[in-house]
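Q: Hi! First time doing this. I have a protein sequence and I read that you can turn it into a structure. Is that right? Here it is:
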Amino acid sequence: MTENEFEEALRDYLSAEIGEDQLITNWVVVAATVDPETGEEAGFTYSGNDAAPIHLRLGLLQTVINDMNNVALLNVLRPRRPRGDAS
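A: Yes, that's right. Below is the predicted 3D structure, encoded as structure tokens:
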């Protein structure tokens, strides 16, 4: 798959997710990687729009990090049911 094909597929997917009335101006895709032999986490890789300046790509990545931190915090603060409570 070429980068242009990937970007077109990504735009199609995002348009379906957020609605075609939204304009997608830039993007960054992040994927976690694992060691194929051990299954242990190896890190992550990302791909971004090559035409976007680095400060924009870094800003998008920082936004994702902030969002993930907020979700993790909400999960910690959410009341938990006791393990034996099946209801």
